[in-house]
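cron nightly-structures :: item 1 of 1
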Amino acid sequence: MKLKIGLVDDHSIILAGVSRLLIECEYEIVFTESNFRDAQKAIEINHSMLDLLIVDISLPDKMGLGLIDVMHQLNPETKIIVMSMHNAEPYINQAINQGAMGYISKQYAGEELIAAIESVCKGKRFLGKNALINLKENNSPTNNMSLDKLSLRELEIFKLLAIGHSPKHIGFTLGLHHKTVLTHRANIMKKLSIRENIELLKLALLCNELSIEDILAQ
């Protein structure tokens, strides 16, 4: 069965190019829209069949990130990838914290989009190279930034969470019940004084537990 995708971008050239790439890869495009209002209507009509929504941030009538909430209210199972010219950390943080599973630069869409689709459809977060570089370069390690307080098992789970694996996938990989992984995750977040998963990734990069190449190779 073909993956069913909705595509939202206000540039006709981008819509045409990405649509061509998706069709070549045998994905089914359910709709393409260029503004928030029409995209919201398309989501409301097609939400039950959508497997994936690819959305731009800068739309002419409203910020595209609002479509993440619209989509997940109607169908929480639909995966979302943000494809944007904005690669600054606040945009990345907001997109991921709102529920996007992927974030890539339009500049590298031809190189990264298919990998991002394959990754998020397996339940794994995907951040493009530009996004990862910005997360690392725009943060500086502090004196109290250390992973020493984590046990060996917690450090192992920390790295997998930082890469973007789900607790269920981590449990399968390590032979643990996913509820055990969730307990470890809660303990890790508490020990590191972290609230969001994206902070795990930043910390892993800053402490050199993971390199950008490590993450992209997953």
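cron nightly-structures :: done
DSSP finds eleven helices and six strands in the chain.
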